[in-house]
Amino acid sequence: MGGGKLMGILDELIKKNEFPIIFIGSGISKRYLKNYPSWLELLEKIWKEIKKYEGEEKRNFYSKLNYISEKLEREKIEDKDFHVNVEMASSIEKRIKNLYYENKFKIENLTQEETYKNKINPFKKYLANIFSSNELINSNSEELKEFKNMLKKSRVILTTNYDTFIEDSFGDNEREILKKYIGQKGLFQGGTGYCELYKIHGSIEEPNSIIITEEDYKEYDKNSILITSKIVSSLLNSPIIFIGYSLTDLNIKNIIKNFSNSLDEKEKSLLSKRIIIINWKKDEENIIEEIITDSSLNCTYTVIKTDNYLEVFKKIGKINQGATPAEISKFEHIIKELIVQRGKKGELEQVFVNLVRKEELDNIKNIGNSNIAIAVGNKAILVKSPSVLDYLEDYFKEEDNIEIEIQLRFLAQQSNSIAFPALRYLTENNIDNSNLLDNEKSKLRERIKKLKKYNIKNSSYKILLKYNSIIKIKEDAESRKSKREMKTTLEEIEEALINYNIDNFKKSDLKEYILDRLQKMKKDNNVEILTSFRKLLISYDLKFNRK
Question: What pTM did the predictor assign?
Answer without folding.
Answer: 0.66
